[in-house]
Structures are given as structure tokens and as C-alpha cells.
Design goal:
Blueprint: E1 8-9, H1 10-16, H2 23-31, E2 35-37, E3 40-41, E4 47-48, E5 53-58, E6 61-67, H3 77-81, E7 84-86, H4 88-107, H5 117-128
Antiparallel strand pairs: 1-4, 2-3, 2-5, 5-6, 6-7
Helix pairs in contact: 1-2
Length: 129
């Protein structure tokens, strides 16, 4: 049986490594099927250890991680980054997706301040045709 020093619940690990702001959000992501350990769907109580592979979808962006350390607490971000290695291919994919989102937002029409009823109607007409 593994001790708490060499394994940790997945929801706590995600919280400690700062992927989620609260443990409740981390638990919800695991229950929702957005987290896989070694390619298989998991539960919040599943324990991870060094060498496990975690596939995570957060805010519609993919993360592919390899666990290299088990944190003892939720510390600073610098400490958290030392607990995992990220796959370079998913980093590039995530950068492409965020760049495409930025480009889409740049192409959207802009208004001065909050649009009123008539301006919203004009914006909708422009986006349709």
C-alpha cells in the first residue's frame, strides 16, 4: 500500500499544482470526465504517483502532463511547476488555439462603450452577412 508521501488524490494534486483555483473545481473537472490518468477516466479519489500521465482539458484547452513530484502543499506557482512536465506538442496546440481565438476577436466589430438596442441590431446584421 502506498503512503501519502508518494501518492496523492488527483483532485488535490490538480489544486496544489494550480490548475484549478479551488479543490471543488478540480473535483468537478474530474467527475465531469475532463481528467484522465494514464489514458483512463478517473474519480476524484484516485491516487497518482510519480510517472503517471495526466490528460486534462481546462477551459477547452488541452494539457498533457507527466507527474514528476508530489507536492506537500499548495505553494507558489514556481513550486507547482516543478511537479510536472508538459508535453511540447500540447503546448504548441494550446498556443495555436489561443492565437486563433485572439484573431477571431480581433475580426469582431467594435463599438464605443456598451452597445444600445440599435447598435446590437447592426452588429448582428454585420455578423450574419
Amino acid at each position: 500500500m502506498t503512503t501519502s508521501a508518494d501518492s496523492l488524490r488527483i483532485d488535490r494534486w490538480l489544486f496544489y499544482c494550480r490548475f484549478f483555483k479551488t479543490r471543488r473545481l478540480a473535483t468537478a473537472a474530474v467527475v465531469g470526465g475532463h481528467v484522465k490518468i494514464n489514458g483512463e477516466r478517473t474519480t476524484p479519489g484516485s491516487r497518482i504517483k510519480c510517472g503517471d500521465r495526466i490528460d486534462l482539458i481546462r477551459e477547452r484547452l488541452p494539457y498533457s502532463l507527466t507527474v514528476i513530484a508530489i507536492p506537500q502543499r499548495r505553494g507558489p506557482a514556481i513550486e507547482a511547476r516543478k511537479c510536472f512536465l508538459e508535453d511540447e506538442a500540447t503546448v504548441r496546440q494550446r498556443e495555436r488555439q489561443t492565437a486563433a481565438l485572439r484573431q477571431d476577436r480581433m475580426l469582431m466589430p467594435k463599438t464605443d462603450g456598451r452597445p444600445d438596442k440599435h447598435t446590437r441590431r447592426k452588429l448582428r446584421e454585420r455578423s450574419r452577412g
